[in-house]
Amino acid sequence: MYRTHDCNSLRKSDIGKDATLAGWVHVSRDHGGVIFIDLRDREGLTQVVFRPEENAQLAKQAHGLRSEDVIQVSGKVAPRVSGTENPKLATGDIELIPAQLRILNRVDDLPFPIDAEIQNEDLRLTFRYYDLRRPELSRNLRIRHRAAKATRDFLDSQGYLEIETPILSKSIPEGARDFLVPSRLMPGKFYALPQAPQQYKQLLQVAGVEKYFQIAKCFRDEDLRADRQPEFTQIDIEASFVEPDDIFRLTEGMLAAVFKATRNVDIKTPFDRMTYREAVGRFGSDKPDRRFGMELVDFSEEFRSSSFKVFRGAIDNDGVVKAINAKGFAGITIGQVDELTEIAKTFGAKGLAFIKIENGEWKSPIVKFFNESEKAALKSKLKIEEGDCVFFAADKWDVACEVLGRIRRRVAEIQDLIAKRQSGSDWDFLWVYDFPLLLWSAEENKWNAMHHPFTRPKGEDVALLDDKKKFPEIRAEAYDVVLNGVEIGGGSIRIHERPLQDKMFEVLGISPQDRQSMFGHLLRALRLGAPPHGGIAMGFDRLVMLLCGEDSIREVMAFPKNNRGMDLMSQSPADVDPRQLRELGIKLAKEKSS
Ligand code: ASP
Q1: How many CA atoms lie within 13 A of 211 on its CB side?
Q2: H helices then E strands: how many in the chain?
Q3: Beta bridge partners of 240
Q4: Phi, psi of 23 (to 5 degrees)
Q5: Helix (H, G, I), strand (E, B) or coil at 398
Q6: Can you state the percent helix, strand and coil of the chain, rounding each to 5?
Q7: Which residues line ligand 1 (CB under 6 A)?
């Protein structure tokens, strides 16, 4: 037997007992010949003390131990010398006085000290199996496990079946780029890795499964960010005979179970709900962070006949004038002005107008164009006070909202309005619903589905599918769940009738031939008694990231890729043997130069 206890279990009440522990040498200290070792396993630390006067040979052996050596020690549990107890450690009252030391494995040179804050993430990822020993990461893996287990238990209790769907599936030119897998048995043909099990989960409803879920791996060949990875995990859910309310209630129950199991927090349900128009109009984002104010206020009425041409021009052009008040931000630096102006330009504005309120004066070159009633309106609706800074956007509704939404978020960061680690009461959940069905792509010169092509238009808006001019107004039965300004999930009620699905494909400019070759199976299925159905998918990594108080999903995945999509530990992607390529009938367009 390697051990009788783990390194976090011995207490005062065990004093005098024999115990055997096994683990890693966390730190080793030599105090005048006495060797103190903090022995670590995944549960915690126990102090082991080698005193030369008690066992000279053992102390000598212990002297040669280095951090991360793997050892086994057997001995007696003893009280710590009075005054040296460590109240911060669960085992801080006791120590182990060993009678035996077995070295199970010695370490080489360490890539970095395990208890150091390592900034070089590439180094950490190269030695990920070692990095994962760090207590924070080990804690994250546990939280992830508990979140997955609570999800499964909850969905099981609601009658949901966990069903696996294929990883080798079919390429669909919608959404992100696919990862392709060449077929050896059918040279020239390719599988695609699923971006999500979307069609399978719908087909499972046609199959009469009624309640499906899966903690599913998804693959998207996208540019990476802190909260994106080429492969990631979703809690994928689909059910028959449901309306948005059913999905909302189910998701709320599931999240409540997950938060209870992982953080012992009782989250408030039901969550608030907000339409897409309201979320974007008030917060400049379809995933509003409501933990701070600075809401967007509309001044289109007030400036409709303004002598300030920039504002009036925007309104005459069917646009809007909106503003936010950054409280206490009048001390904005030139560098910050430049940065915020850059953000405004990136998101479509021509510039960024603002007013600083300093020493009782409104400081800005645009103030001279405002009349008294315009100023009074600004003052009262924005609650302007000394020390504030007001930012404006005058543009089309979506541009003005997005620009101010970005400025709002950045100013909140600069002012540190959001406490970094959430406390129990600081979980702000929100449903955003009634998303637009369609999105115009100037690049492709066509309408695309905002969510995906299987999303159902709202009943009262279906007729608008016949009038191109009305496309921007069509709302979808689509919803997102947002937590603290992060979209953690989204879904929709689906189209279950063949004629409506055909109509949707037509609107999206997918020809009848393409429809057959890409979606033939789904279209056939819709004619074989498809029930009304809908679902949702939650970004499991993002959810766990928030549960762990981390800023990056890489911190909650065991073996993530770096931001160039590389697995630095195994050096993947990698070259393959030319024989493998020959078997697949693949020739590289460009042979490697070396
Ligand atoms: N499959 C969708 C996604 O991954 C979610 C859903 O509609 O259920 O975004």
Answers
A1: 12
A2: 15, 22
A3: 533
A4: 170, -155
A5: helix
A6: 30, 25, 40
A7: 196, 198, 490-492, 535-537
Give the nearest ligand 1 atom to 195 CA.
4
Confidence of residue 421 (pLDDT cuts 50, 70, 90): very low
Q: What is the pTM of this model?
A: 0.93
Q: Which sign does the torsion angle of CA 260, 262, 268, 269 carry? A: negative
- What's the rounded Cα separation, in Å, for the pair 553 and 560? 8
Q: Say how many Å lie between the CA of residue 227 and the centre of ligand 1.
A: 17
Instruction: Reply yes or no: is the peptide bond before residue 270 cis, omega within 30 of 0.
Output: yes
Sign of the alpha-carbon dihedral angle for 496, 497, 502, 507: negative
Token look-up 């004619």 returns 527
DSSP state of 572: B
pLDDT per residue as tens digits for the range 434-456: 999 999 999 989 999 999 999 99
* 68 token code pair: 């991360």
Among 257, 112, 125, which Cα is nearest to 557's?
Answer: 125
- Centre of ligand 1 to C-alpha 537, Å, is 5
Under 8 Å between Cβ of 322 and 349: no
Is pLDDT above 50 for 376? yes
CA of residue 198 to ligand 1 center, whole Å = 6
Q: 3-class SS at 555? A: helix
The CA distances from residue 268 to 265, 425, 426, 544, in Å, are: 9, 9, 11, 18
Q: Using CA positions, which residue lies closest to atom 6 of ligand 1? A: 491
Which residue has the least CA distance to atom 8 on ligand 1?
536
Per-residue pLDDT tens digits for 228-278: 899 999 999 999 999 999 999 999 999 999 999 999 999 999 999 999 999
- Is there a contact between 506 and 543 (Cβ–Cβ < 8 Å)? no
Tell me if 21 sits within 8 A of 72, measured CB to CB: yes
Classify residue 418 as left (phi > 0), alpha (psi -120 to 50) or beta.
beta
